[in-house]
Write a structure and sequence with these properties.
The chain is α+β, with helices and mostly antiparallel strands. Among the domains are: 2-80, OB fold (Dihydrolipoamide Acetyltransferase, E2P), CATH 2.40.50.140; 83-139 and 216-247, no CATH class. The chain has helices at 88-104, 111-126, 131-146, 181-184, 194-204, 215-228, 236-247; strands at 2-16, 20-27, 31-37, 56-63, 69-79, 169-172, 177-179, 190-192. The strands form two sheets. The protein has a five-stranded mixed barrel. A three-stranded antiparallel sheet has the order 7-6-8. The protein is elongated and about 65 Å long. It starts with a strand and ends with a helix. The model has no long low-confidence stretch (mean pLDDT 94).
């Protein structure tokens, strides 16, 4: 057993018994971890009531390599989650990104991925108005790209033909990318106009183009995630869909 301290973001919190909590933490140097915070709900807990979703801090854990659940011994808060709960869409977007991480994460050290997630939450904190929906889309697609599951948009997924900018294509969800006009004839999926393909290419890099209507973007992202990134539907998407509808 060894003690480790690491930068951490709390992604999920569960009650455990009457006084404790189980946390799912994304850390900079130790990947995705589960930790038990004993007595966290007691009035005089050493954790001081700071163990909430999207709080950031320095987590100290007592780690046993043979166990999936470690013991949290301290959490030094560096950023409160308050900003992400300021409105429904912001919180729903953060929950959506967190579920993608929780469904795909491992215990491998991935500092660059940790900083990508932290930057995404930072951007959600400060984005406002109509920009916020585009930011959620951009950060979700960027996580997909960072995880190695970006759709093929520059070459046909069947014949390998280069797809020049300005060309309308057929997007095949199961194949994970675009088909040229020849391979796309009669193929399953949906038509993807050139401007939509260009927008997704920007979103994959974390940029936020002007999108106009977003329903088709959400559908494409959701189906790509469910086909290639996560096993089964994302529970948070229902919450996010409701938040998007209420904000328009």
């Amino acid at each position: 057993m060894s003690a480790v301290s690491d930068e951490a973001i709390i992604l999920q919190v569960f009650a455990y018994g009457e006084t404790s909590r189980i946390l799912r933490l994304l850390t900079a140097g130790h990947g995705l971890r589960s930790a038990l915070a004993r007595g966290a709900l007691r009035p005089r807990s050493r954790f001081g009531g700071v163990l909430e979703p999207f709080a950031e801090g320095i987590a100290t854990m007592s780690v046993r390599p043979s166990r999936d659940l470690q013991t949290l011994t301290a959490f030094e808060l560096t950023r409160s989650p308050t900003g992400l709960g300021s409105d429904l869409l912001r919180f729903a977007g953060a929950s959506f990104l967190a579920e993608i991480v929780l469904r795909t994460g491992s215990e491998e050290s991935q500092p660059s991925f940790f900083h990508t997630v932290r930057a995404a939450l930072d951007q959600l904190r400060v984005s406002t108005g109509t920009e916020l929906e585009a930011v959620i889309l951009a950060r979700a697609w960027h996580l997909v790209e960072q995880l190695g599951f970006a759709p093929a948009l520059d070459e046909c997924v069947e014949c390998g033909r280069h797809l020049p900018a300005g060309m309308d294509v057929r997007f095949d969800y199961a194949a994970g990318g675009a088909r040229c006009d020849t391979c796309g004839a009669g193929a399953p999926g949906r038509d993807l106009p050139a401007h939509g393909r260009a927008a997704i290419q920007e979103l994959l890099q974390g940029r936020t183009p002007v999108l106009g209507r977003t329903a088709a973007h959400w559908q494409l992202l959701r189906r790509h995630l469910e086909h290639h990134v996560v096993d089964g539907p994302l529970r948070s998407f229902t919450f996010l869909d409701a938040a998007v509808s209420s904000s328009t």
